[in-house]
Automatic annotation (TrEMBL):
PANTHER family: IRON(3+)-HYDROXAMATE IMPORT ATP-BINDING PROTEIN FHUC. Keywords: ATP-binding, Cell membrane, Ion transport, Iron, Iron transport, Membrane, Nucleotide-binding, Transport. It is found in: Cell membrane. This is ABC transporter ATP-binding protein. Residues 8-248 form the ABC transporter domain. One of its GO terms (molecular function) is ATP binding. Its main location: membrane. It holds the Pfam family ABC_tran. Coiled coil: none annotated. It is a peripheral membrane protein.
């Protein structure tokens, strides 16, 4: 694979978990590429391995084989601080109860750049205010994090990732707690990060209809592996059905909606 345009890529990657009696392989022979200025939506049924993949390509979890590259250099050759200056990761884990304000939590995104005391420079302050403004959180900046709703909290975590000022942002189910309006707004926001700020955005999600509207590329994960391509291509050739293993659920490429087919008729 030509890696020159890729900000992140994988080569023959095997992901999964080490166990005493043989490894639990979740995916193998995975070769993928992320580019700046693009939104990629990663989809697949529950338990197929999306979170495992995200943790594996960000160095949070050890790979069972193969290689991850940032530009043309192996991820193994990067220090933790260098990785943190390249990739922001937004996970679904609940954060520990904290007395921090929204501003202070977002400021933690500057950690890879600050000294050990966490002293903020003028550039750090400006980047935090930019992130708060872009995510429409300026009015909440002095609110205690433990007073936020789940939806507001999810926006704050996206804001922190933006404050981290990395070319890549990877998010695991960032709209899980949101109502439909906030789901749409979050997808629009992430789309603007890619298309206005030239970031590479990778989102693991179950929001199929929204993904079809905003994604530049889809990564469809099933038991056979990961199929990649642009949305129109995958819709047209029926590959989108890969995310279901139930033949009675099918994607209608004309209406771009899923329909339930009664196979007993
Ligand atoms: N810490 C772990 N140790 C061992 N196996 C794990 C661990 N976490 C997940 N798995 C297993 O790895 C497989 C993939 O899980 P993963 O959480 O990556 O799926 P997912 O696609 O993100 O699912 P969902 O859509 O439900 O969030 C599953 O079989 C799961 O049981």
């Amino acid at each position: 694979m030509n890696k020159t345009n890729n900000i992140l890529s994988t080569e023959d990657l095997t992901i999964g978990y080490k166990r005493n009696k043989g490894n639990h392989v979740v995916g193998k022979s995975i070769s993928l590429a992320l580019k700046k200025g693009e939104v990629v939506c990663l989809m697949g049924k529950n338990g197929i391995g999306k979170s495992t993949l995200l943790r594996s390509i960000t160095g949070v979890q050890e790979n069972l084989g193969g290689e991850v590259f940032l530009k043309e250099k192996s991820l193994r050759k990067f220090s933790l601080s260098q990785i943190a200056q390249t990739i922001s990761l937004v996970l679904t884990d609940k954060i520990e109860p904290t007395n921090l304000t929204v501003f202070e939590l977002v400021a933690l995104g500057r950690h890879p750049y600050t000294n050990w005391l966490g002293t903020l420079s003028q550039k750090d302050e400006e980047t935090i205010v930019f992130a708060l403004s872009k995510t429409d959180l300026l009015s909440l900046k002095n609110t205690k994090v433990n007073e936020l709703s789940d939806g507001q909290m999810q926006r704050v975590m996206i804001c922190r990732a933006l404050a981290q000022d990395t070319p890549i942002i990877i998010l695991d189910e960032p709209t899980a707690h949101l109502d439909i309006q906030h789901k749409i707004e979050t997808f629009q926001l992430l789309h603007s990060f890619a298309h206005e700020l030239n970031k590479a955005i990778l989102i693991s999600t179950h929001e199929i209809q929204l993904s079809l509207q905003i994604a530049d590329q889809l990564w469809l994960m099933d038991n056979q592996g990961i199929t990649t391509g642009n949305v129109d291509e995958l819709v047209k050739n029926g590959e989108i059905n890969r995310i279901f293993d139930n033949p009675s659920i099918q994607f209608d490429h004309q209406t771009r909606l899923f329909k339930f087919i009664n196979l007993k008729k």
